[in-house]
Amino acid sequence: MTTTTAPEASVLDHRLTAADRCDSCGAQAYIAAEVNGSELLFCAHHGRKYEEKLRSIATSWHDETARLHAAD
Q1: Residue-wise pLDDT tens digits, 22-39
Q2: Which among 6, 15, 27, 53 could disulfide-bond with 66, CB atoms 3.0 to 4.6 Å apart, if both were Cys?
Q3: 33 lies in which domain range?
């Protein structure tokens, strides 16, 4: 399983944009997970809500939620 986390990632590694929307609620997506060859996008809230279940079946997990705190 490939895991990418924003703290180690540079700005060039940010691949999610404001146009990427959460599959659960439509908010801006900060987490992308690949499951069964399909990409699922989640906001920080829903990503954390489903993370435990998805991590066990996801082939990749891309997390840019640290960007939410970078502007502080």
Answers
A1: 999 999 999 999 999 999
A2: 6
A3: 2-70
